[in-house]
Every structure is written in C-alpha cells, then in structure tokens.
Write a sequence for this structure.
C-alpha cells in the first residue's frame, strides 16, 4: 500500500514522502496514529502542490544547516563528569550534556538530533557523536569526557 507520511518516521521516511508499506502496518499503526494518509489521486495532487511550495523553504533550511555544519567542523568539546579514582563515571554522559556544551559555544542544537555512537559512556576518554542538522546534513563531532 502506498502512503504519504505526515511526519518523519524512523527507518521509513521523512515528512511528505510517498512510501510503500505492508497493508497491516499502514492500516493498524501509521494511519490510526495520524502518521500517514493513503496515497489516493487527490492526496497525491495535494502532496505535489505542497512539495512545490516547500522546495524553496527546504533549500533555505539546508543552507542554514550547512552554515551550522561549518561551525561544527573541527570543534572539540570537553565535558566534565564526576569520576571515581579508576576513571569510571558516576552515571553516564548523554546527549543533554553535549547539547548544553554546544549551546555554551553559541551553537543551538536540539538534543534529539544528537546521536552518540558508543552508548552508554561510563568512562573518561574521547568519543564521537553525530549531529543531525537537516535530513541531508549531519556532522560528526568529537568530545572528551574528563574527570572533575
């Protein structure tokens, strides 16, 4: 069954994409939750009109994301955490701390758009995280976890 997504769905597609899914997934999950609509001919026409209007807006958003990505290139963060004498962290470092450090540097990024590759972080060291700025623009940043 072909559907039009009304919002981003992980591992499926982005808002306003036309995707093919199994009937049960569409009828029992996506459509009742308001995440998608059936791709009827009238819905397709509406989608095409929306797509034309959004193309210009999307391009501006992508340009802003690329400018932000340039600021992230070569950026190194230091995150302080309370540690034991052996270098183990009490608790763990998560995306919230990374987002706060980026905000201190003047780069505003939602913590939901940050993905830490080596979760959970429970030791002092250097790690990598991916910051998704746009559906086509993402950057890897390195951050060092230091004991306080």
């Amino acid at each position: 069954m072909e559907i039009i997504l009304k919002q981003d769905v992980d591992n499926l597609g982005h808002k306003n994409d036309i995707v093919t899914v199994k009937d049960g997934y569409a009828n029992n999950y996506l459509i009742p939750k308001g995440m998608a609509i059936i791709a009827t001919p009238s819905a397709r026409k509406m989608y095409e009109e929306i797509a034309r209007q959004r193309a210009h807006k999307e391009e501006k958003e992508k340009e802003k994301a690329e400018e932000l990505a340039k600021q992230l290139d070569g950026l190194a963060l230091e995150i302080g955490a309370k540690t034991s004498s052996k270098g183990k962290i009490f608790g763990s470092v998560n995306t919230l701390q990374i987002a706060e450090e980026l905000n201190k540097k003047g780069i505003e990024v939602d913590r939901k758009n940050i993905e830490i590759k080596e979760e959970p972080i429970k030791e002092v060291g250097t790690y990598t995280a991916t910051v998704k700025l746009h559906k086509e623009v993402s950057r890897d940043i390195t951050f060092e976890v230091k004991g306080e």
Observations:
- The longest helix spans residues 41-72.
- Residues 28 and 140 are 37 Å apart (CA to CA).
- The chain has a mean pLDDT of 87.
- The two ends are 55 Å apart (CA to CA).
